[in-house]
DNA sequence: AATTCCAGCGAACAGTTGTTAACTGCATGG
DNA sequence: CCATGCAGTTAACAACTGTTCGCTGGAATT
């Protein structure tokens, strides 16, 4: 299926990824609007001008980072929202999944949280677009559930948006509690689960 | 009560406020970590070195901006959460209040949203502290309500946090819809109200 | 084997940044 | 009325920024 890349293309993609990785690392302590192109190339060990072979600007690089951070997340959302089992079990499993993801890709999560309302418009818009896609996917999944009978399309979208926002908020809290004690992380997990429980209760008594 | 400031102190506070205002303006199109001190003084029309008479750094200025943006908000929160009337009425009024606030102080709201997870640690911490204060105040207010009977302290704090997060999320959405049509803002208002309704329903059926 | 292509390099550019130092003029307190 | 305090100034600093241009070496194509 996939044609093996030539030495040329392979090397290019390698430095390109190195630039993305270095940028992501530098962005743990600043925001994208203050990230300099020279800063990134210096971290990789490459000439400043090499940057232009891969990205038009740091904003451009930011947009690609959004896709890297969020693009691969759709299957996870899908599997979460269509999981079976008791309601409480599903909530606990979801919260665990979030915690695990934050632990596996902390820099990605931080980047999204930081740039969602950050100073670079194209990046903001890309995040917005991706999150809207999530909300849409969750909406269709919810529409399939039998509990969603009698729900209007608008209300389903409202609920989906609430879920997506909640996921992100929980991820942020896990991130903040990351350098803290294990006890603090458990506290965050409990809180996140309780929030989802309350939303779930509200959902089951909606217009009845 | 308050001693009339001398000409000296008055002039100082004037340029100090001018610096804060100019910074807030510049921060509509970038984030704090990329805000230069010279940029701010240039916007005010004052020498770069004058900056140091008021702030140690731009991060310092950021912390004070947080207090300006959030400090004056406590009475509003208080009045909202202790308001009387039907549940739906209160929700609609709350959403209206948020919309009005965003319209009156868009730059402040944008600043908080942007720097809540932004690249400057002291500012992040100050916002966190202020939001925690809000959550605490809401918690006490909720504890006074008769509907909160049987609620644990932890769950009350969870609910309060959910409310605070929800307020902020709604404020952000109003902000994003600000350059859009009036119809779009109405859509946001409806969504925000529906979210609060769902949370309210969940609250009333909590552990019963 | 000869030729084209192109990722990365090195040097240079004008402009910007934060920070220091020593100053000036004016409101203030004795 | 005179001496002190201090908000704001001017000048200079080394360090850094994004972007340009022409170059080079080796992979890719023919």
Portion of residues within helices of chain A: over 70%
**Which regions of chain A have little confidence, pLDDT < 50, spanning 5+ residues?**
none
Main sheet specs of chain A: none
Strand-and-helix sequence of chain A, N→C? HHHHHHHHH
The separation of the N and C termini of chain A measures 53 Å
Shape of chain A: elongated
In CATH, the topology of the largest domain in chain A is named Tetracycline Repressor, domain 2
In short:
Chain A has 208 residues and is mostly helical. Chain A has 2 domains: 7-56, Arc Repressor Mutant, subunit A; 68-204, Tetracycline Repressor, domain 2, CATH 1.10.357.10. Chain A has helices spanning 7-26, 37-44, 58-70, 74-81, 87-104, 106-116, 121-144, 153-176, 182-204.
Features:
homodimer; mainly alpha; Arc Repressor Mutant, subunit A; Tetracycline Repressor, domain 2; 0% strand; DNA-binding
Set down the secondary structure blueprint.
2 copies of one chain form a homodimer.
Chain A: H1 7-26, H2 37-44, H3 58-70, H4 74-81, H5 87-104, H6 106-116, H7 121-144, H8 153-176, H9 182-204
The structure holds a DNA duplex (30 and 30 nucleotides).
């Amino acid at each position: 299926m996939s044609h093996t890349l030539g030495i040329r293309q392979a090397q290019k993609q390698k430095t390109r990824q190195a630039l993305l990785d270095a940028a992501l690392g530098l962005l743990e302590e600043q925001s994208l609007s203050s990230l300099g192109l020279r800063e990134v190339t210096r971290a990789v060990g490459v000439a400043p001008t090499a940057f232009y072979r891969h990205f038009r600007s740091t904003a451009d690089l930011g947009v690609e980072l959004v896709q890297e951070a969020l693009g691969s997340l759709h299957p996870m959302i899908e599997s979460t929202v269509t999981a079976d089992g008791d309601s409480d079990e599903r909530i606990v499993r979801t919260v665990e999944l979030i915690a695990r993801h934050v632990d596996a890709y902390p820099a990605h999560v931080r980047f999204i949280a930081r740039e969602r309302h950050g100073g670079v418009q194209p990046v903001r818009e890309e995040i917005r677009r991706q999150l809207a896609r999530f909300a849409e996917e969750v909406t269709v999944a919810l529409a399939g559930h039998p509990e969603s009978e009698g729900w209007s399309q608008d209300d389903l979208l409202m609920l989906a948006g609430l879920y997506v926002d909640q996921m992100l908020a929980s991820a942020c809290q896990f991130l903040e509690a990351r350098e803290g004690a294990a006890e603090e992380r458990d506290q965050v997990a409990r809180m996140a689960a309780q929030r989802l429980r309350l939303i779930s209760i509200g959902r089951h008594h909606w217009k009845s």
